[in-house]
Specification:
alpha/beta, TIM Barrel, 8-stranded parallel sheet, 4-stranded antiparallel sheet, 17 helices, 11% strand
Length: 507
C-alpha cells in the first residue's frame, strides 16, 4: 500500500495541548492552540503532533493513555474564553483566587476550576433549543454509552463499572432505561461537555488548515478496563463472563525503559475469537474509532503498532510483565477490512521497542512510516537502525525524542550517556566537545538533515530545556504529564531558527 508521505520533505513540532500557555492552569483548544498554530506557521512547520485528547483521571496520574473513553474529548481542554464568547459564561465567572503555575499543570486545581465553569455553563444551556447540539448527538454513535457511563460513575461514587450492581454492569436494557429516565439531566451534562469540546476542536482544525499545518493525533492501541468502551463492548475484550475481571492484560517484556517490562494492565482484545459476532464487533468498533479520530486530525500515530502483529499477553494476576507470552495479532487483513469502510488512512506506526522482522513486514506491507528516535542511536553499534545514515527508506519519521524520553539536553547530561558516547554524538553532528553548539541543536540538525521524509522535534528540544521539563517517565506512577511552556519562550528567535534550518534541508 502507498504511504501518505511523499517525496516532499517536511517537519513539525511535538507538543501536547495541555503543555501550551494559558491563564487557566492547563493549555486548551482555544487561544492557546490558535497562538501555537501561528508560531508553527511562523517557524515554517507543516505538522503539529499532539498526544491523545481523551478525558484523563487523577487516579491514573492524568495520563492521556489511560482514559474513561477512547472517543470522548477531555473537558479540561475546553477553553473558558470561548464559553464567554458564546454567552454561556460572563467574563466575571472566569475570575479566580487560584494562582495557576505557568510552568506546570496542577490537574487537581484545573479540574476543580473548569468543572465549576462547565456546570455554570450547562445551567444556561438549553439542549432542546440548540439545533447544532441535537445534530451532534444524532451523528455521534458512542455518545449515549459515554453519557450513561459517566453518569453511573458519578452515581456510584467513582467505583469501577465492574463493582456496580450486576444489572447495570451487564447492561440490562430495562435497568439502563430506568437510569436514562431518572438521570436525564446528568447524562445531558456529560453529553454537553462533549458538544463543547468537539465544537471548539472544529474551529481549531479549521485554523490549522488555514495555516497549512497538519495535525498528527495519537491512538493508544489499548483502552482502560474502567472505560465506557469496555463496559459497552464487553464481548470484544478478554473479560471473564462470571467475574467481569480481565483474563489477561497488556504490557511489554523487559526493554530500554524497564528490567521487569511494563505492565500496562489494559484488557486485551479477543483477536483470536472464532465467533463471527466478535470479529464483526472488533472491526466495527475500530472502524468507528478511526473515523472519530480522523474527524479531528490529519494523521494518526498508532501507539504500540506491533500489537497488531503480535502482542504481549500477561495473566491478570501477575504483578510484573515478566511472565507473559507473545500472541499472534490480527495482522494486515484487519486493516484491509477497515479500509473497505473508510479508505486508506494516514497512519504513523509506533514501532519502537522489541520489534521482530514480522512487525517490519506488516508495517511495510501497509505502507506505514515507522519511527526513528535519535536518542536510541548512539550505543556504539555502527549498524544501529536509528543512526541517520542507516535509514533504508525515506518513508519514516525521525524524532530527537518522544514524550516518553527525557529531553535531549537532560538525556545528554544524564548517567545514561557516558563520556565516550557524548564524544560520538558530537562527532556524528560534525562537532567536537569544545564546540559551543548546544546538544539539542546538534540533534535537531541531524534529524532535519536526515533522509526521513518527516522530522518531528519535541518543543522542549527546540527550546533547549532540561530534565525538569520531561513529559513522561515510563514506569514512574506519579508526577508525569505536567510540563507547560510559558508563552515567553515561544519567541520569534526560536521560530526563525527552526524555519531557517528547515529551509536549508528542504523541509
Amino acid at each position: 500500500m502507498q504511504s501518505f508521505l511523499t517525496t516532499d520533505r517536511a517537519s513539525g513540532v511535538l507538543a501536547h495541548i495541555s503543555s501550551l500557555p494559558g491563564p487557566y492552569g492547563i493549555g486548551d483548544i482555544g487561544s492557546a492552540s490558535f497562538g501555537f498554530i501561528d508560531f508553527l506557521h511562523q517557524a515554517g512547520q507543516k505538522y503539529w503532533q499532539i498526544l491523545p485528547t481523551v478525558p484523563t483521571s487523577l487516579f491514573f496520574d492524568s495520563s492521556p493513555y489511560m482514559s474513561s473513553s477512547a472517543f470522548a474529548g477531555s473537558p479540561l481542554l475546553i477553553c473558558p474564553d470561548s464559553l464567554v464568547d458564546s454567552g454561556l459564561l460572563k467574563k466575571s465567572d472566569l475570575d479566580t483566587k487560584v494562582t495557576f503555575s505557568p510552568y506546570l499543570t496542577d490537574y487537581h486545581q484545573a479540574d476543580r476550576f473548569k468543572r465549576q465553569l462547565l456546570e455554570y455553563s450547562f445551567k444556561k444551556f438549553s439542549p432542546a433549543q440548540d439545533g447544532h447540539y441535537q445534530q451532534f448527538v444524532n451523528r455521534t454513535p458512542w455518545l449515549r454509552d459515554y453519557g450513561l457511563f459517566m453518569c453511573l460513575k458519578e452515581v456510584h461514587h467513582s467505583k469501577p463499572w465492574t463493582d456496580w450492581p450486576d444489572d447495570l454492569a451487564r447492561r440490562n436494557p430495562s435497568a439502563l432505561a430506568r437510569v436514562e429516565k431518572r438521570y436525564r439531566t446528568r447524562i445531558d451534562y456529560y453529553q454537553f461537555e462533549q458538544y463543547l469540546f468537539f465544537s471548539q476542536s472544529s474551529a481549531l482544525i479549521k485554523s490549522a488548515a488555514d495555516r497549512q499545518v497538519h495535525i498528527i493525533g495519537d491512538i493508544p492501541i489499548y483502552v482502560a478496563l474502567d472505560s465506557s468502551d469496555v463496559w459497552a463492548h464487553q464481548d470484544i475484550f478478554e473479560i471473564d463472563e462470571k467475574t467481569l475481571a480481565p483474563l489477561r492484560v497488556s504490557g511489554v517484556p523487559p526493554d530500554y525503559f524497564s528490567e521487569t517490562g511494563q505492565l500496562w494492565g489494559n484488557p486485551l482484545y479477543r483477536w483470536n475469537s472464532r465467533d463471527s459476532v466478535v470479529e464483526d464487533g472488533l472491526v466495527d468498533w475500530w472502524t468507528q474509532r478511526f473515523k472519530a479520530i480522523f474527524g479531528m486530525v490529519d494523521v494518526a500515530r498508532v501507539d504500540h503498532f506491533r500489537g497488531f502483529q503480535t502482542y504481549w499477553a500477561v495473566p491478570a494476576e501477575e504483578e510484573t510483565a515478566l511472565n507473559g507470552n507473545w500472541v499472534k495479532g490480527p495482522g494486515a487483513s484487519f486493516f484491509e477490512k477497515i479500509y473497505r469502510h473508510l479508505g486508506e488512512l494516514k497512519i504513523i506506526a509506533e514501532d519502537l521497542g522489541e520489534i521482530s522482522e514480522e512487525v517490519i513486514k506488516l508495517r511495510d506491507r501497509l505502507g506505514f512510516p515507522g519511527m526513528k528516535v535519535l536518542q536510541f542511536a548512539f550505543d556504539g553499534n555502527t549498524a544501529n537502525p536509528f543512526l541517520p545514515h542507516n535509514y533504508t527508506t525515506p518513508n519514516c519519521v525521525v524524532y530527537t525524542g518522544t514524550h516518553d524520553n527525557d529531553t535531549t539536553l537532560g538525556w545528554f547530561l544524564s548517567s545514561h550517556v557516558n563520556d565516550h558516547q557524548r564524544k560520538e554524538i558530537k562527532r556524528f553532528a560534525n562537532r567536537t566537545m569544545h564546540d559551543k553548539s548546544p546538544i539539542h541543536h546538534d540533534l535537531i540538525y541531524l534529524a532535519l538533515s536526515s533522509t526521513a521524509s518527516l522530522a518531528v522535534i519535541p518543543l522542549q528540544d527546540l527550546l533547549g530545556f532540561g530534565s525538569d521539563c520531561r513529559m513522561n517517565t515510563p514506569g514512574v506512577a506519579n508526577g508525569n504529564w505536567q510540563w507547560r511552556c510559558h508563552e515567553k519562550h515561544l519567541t520569534d528567535e526560536a521560530a526563525d531558527y527552526l524555519r531557517r534550518l528547515c529551509q536549508r534541508f528542504g523541509r
